[in-house]
Known about the structure:
Blueprint: H1 2-40, E1 48-49, H2 55-67, H3 78-97, H4 103-116, H5 118-134, H6 139-151, H7 156-170, H8 178-202, H9 207-211, E2 222-228, H10 231-235, H11 241-252, H12 255-264, E3 281-286, H13 289-299, E4 306-307, H14 316-327, E5 332-333, E6 336-337, H15 353-375, H16 403-408
Parallel strand pairs: 4-5
Antiparallel strand pairs: 1-6, 2-3
Helix pairs in contact: 1-12, 1-15, 2-8, 3-4, 3-8, 5-8, 6-7, 7-8, 13-14
Amino acid sequence: MANLSYSQAAQKALERERERVREKEREKELYSKGSVAQSINFVVDKAKGEFCLDCEEKFSLYLATILARDKENSDWLDEDIEYIDNITKYLKNISEIAPAISEDTERAFLEAVTCYCSTKLKYRLTKLNDTIKLHYRNEHVKSFEDLLSAKNDTNIITISGVCREYYKKVRYNNNIPTKFKEHIKKVGSYAVSVIGIVECARNVQYKSLFSNVEVYRAKPVIIKNQPIYSWKNIIRRFIDEDKYNRFMDGCSKKPEVMERISQVYTDKATQKQQPLDGDNVKQYIYLHAEMNILAFLIDNEIKSKVFIAVSKYCCYLCGLYIDLARKHGYRISFSGYHMKLYGRWILPHVKNKDFKAGSLKYILKCLDRIIKQKLNHDDTKSLSADPDSPGNSPDPDYSDGNYLYEYVGSFKVNNNNTYSFSRR
């Protein structure tokens, strides 16, 4: 009996190991096909959103805007942790004394946000500046420049406030250059967020919520050397050699496709492109923030209504996973998804093996469909360029928020919190 029990245990261990290997193989296939799909069909469909949000959901979106890190796919830094702790402290203090107002605390909150978000905000300001130079003759661009000049202030959060004011005026005007209005909204989103957060913290009906706030920092999940099958290996699973050569000829005539291929298959460590027909191809992949949160909900079987707020719309693969979770009873809501497909995406490793296996099968099926559809066109006319998707920037509220400018007036001027538009 002892020998039989040992034999059974060994057999079970062997079966577990074989299943682990099969699972790793399926994941390798998933990440390989994700890389190919991103290269040939980066934008799967039109962006979907924005959904109607209630006050609590808007507040969550405001927080996501000001808490977004410069390097989102990296470990938490000490400055990140300190910033989150300070923001938590400021908001609890503002709420605790409401309806009285602590100008010192609100000013400290605003200055902390301005400093922490300066890199992202300056990047968006540069995008806006480029668009202004492109459309400098447009009457709406000129009116915005006049509004900005009237403030006579180079502080980045002041400029964000001006963008917020201007966007409220032109939000429904379809005669304004699309790119210009889009960048106005993105820059203005920081002022929208800080004003919205302060207004919520001042609201006495939310006192119990702020006093009981708990912060959980999920550990980023990053795999730096995930083995994947080569570009050619995956595509040859769908078409023969002759059709592959014709397909590659079509791709070579589309610079935007070749650029994406180069980006997708460039080794992050060496910054060199890996061979498209090589045997030792690696990929740098990471778990998206909303997937990290959703994995926690699934592992703890939390099926109450949950709004997941992120600083960007969800990508195409995150959208697929969220839709599948909903079918399993998880009441997940979010602000929208941009339908872009990113190959450097990690499938959440949830404890529920059936859910994990089902999600892997489902997403592989969707990727197969995308790749097959594109490979059916020898002339590659169906390969899409990179259209811009709307950002996840929150819409402006309708409070005046003028106290923002009063607080900024006492900030110390430095290169981190100022921005000057270059003239055409």
